[in-house]
Amino acid sequence: MSRIELADRVKNLPPYPFAALDAAKAKAKAEGKDIISLGIGDPDLPTPGFIVDELKKAAADPATHQYPDYTGRLDYRQVCADFMKRRFGVEFDGASEILALIGSKEGIAHIPLAYINPGDFALCPNPGYPVYDVATQFAGGQVKYFTLDEDRKFLPDLGGIPAEWAQRAKLMFLNYPNNPTGAVATVETLQPVVDFCRERNILLVYDNAYSELAFDGYKPISIFQVPGAKEIAIEMHSLSKSFNMTGWRIAWAAGNADYIAGLGKIKTNVDSGAFDAIQLAAMEALRRNEDPIVTQNYATYGARRAACEKKLTEMGISFLKSPATFYVWCKVPTDEKSAAFCQRILSNTGVVVTPGTAFGSLGEGYFRIALTVPERRMIEALDRIAGQLG
Ligand SMILES: *Cc1c(COP(=O)(O)O)cnc(C)c1O
């Protein structure tokens, strides 16, 4: 029993979407079922050894043991800038236009505190990564959803955004290659979004967490390849998915010096920077992003995706074909709601997949598969699902 009431911002959080699913998982486990989780987007493959070696070396040096610089090491920021130049052909000044983050989720969660006043609107994708919504609410802002739907290949429906929302919006969140749908964007498809934000003075927060996780020759873009983007965009990059480093908590934000300073002001007051040794290891990762050990990881996810897509086609389940991310966005093949379908699959087979509604109301009718188990296990999981389709 607690005497102290939670703050409204916590009490008002939407109900946890996985409660029923968690209960079904616990029950399946208790019954001794062999659980295969295609639920969480957390790489099962290890961080490449050369990155781990660099951390060991760096951690042994006492110079890394004190408080790090708030904004990140200058050499780390320079390596991030070099990477962006090499990878996307975009120029950034490491000293003023790059900020080290403790994971990109940290940057996403903090940016509304820098730019949202109570009552301001933030435009968030539906379906989308739930952190955009919650971070907006924590800052006292109001979430207004724009639609990502199949007809538009899960690209934003700008025409569907009411004029008043656009007028009052301060931020817009966007993420391609996309979680949960796997959709990808091009310079041509993003130009109207950049123009929309420029015309209305909206800060476009471009979440590029999957920029490297692509296959078959496809190379995702940076928002800064779109003309005019630098005036109104900040981009979040992360080593988590690119180098199987989710546990390390290292990322960066890139943007013009004003937006970087704005986000930096929040960060200097709430955290003390990323561990220097992790920044040194991350520098090695970024310098060696074309090392065969790294590119083999992408090929592995690509092979799993190909096998998954083949199997889904045999099963008569429709899905979005994608050249990037480790997610497959599938149509629920029965007349059940997403949550009921996923719960039934889990109870009967021990296979965990995520209901589309975990990402917003427009995820109804879909479920998400994460390709984060070995291929043989994934096929086994899909066979079990096939057995439930009758
Ligand atoms: C995984 C993920 C992130 C966060 O990654 P970090 O580990 O915090 O860098 C951000 N956005 C999306 C869409 C993600 O899927």
Descriptive report:
By secondary structure, the chain is an alpha/beta fold. The protein has two domains: 8-46 and 292-386, Alpha-Beta Complex (Aspartate Aminotransferase, domain 1), CATH 3.90.1150; 49-287, 3-Layer(aba) Sandwich (Aspartate Aminotransferase, domain 2). It has 15 helices and twelve strands. It has helices at 8-11, 19-30, 49-59, 74-88, 94-97, 104-115, 131-138, 163-168, 187-200, 229-232, 257-270, 276-287, 292-315, 338-349, 375-386; strands spanning 36-37, 98-101, 121-126, 142-147, 169-175, 203-207, 233-238, 251-255, 327-331, 351-352, 354-355, 366-370. The strands form three sheets. The chain has a seven-stranded mixed sheet with strand order 2-8-7-6-5-3-4, with helices on both faces. It has a three-stranded antiparallel sheet with strand order 9-12-11. Strands 1-10 form a two-stranded parallel ribbon. β6, α10 (229-232) and β7 (233-238) form a beta-alpha-beta unit. α2 runs parallel beside α14 (338-349), α6 crosses α11 (257-270) and α13 (292-315) packs parallel to α15 (375-386). The longest helix is centred in the last third of the chain and has 24 residues, at 292-315. The model has no long low-confidence stretch (mean pLDDT 96). The site of pyridoxal-5'-phosphate has 14 residues, from α6.
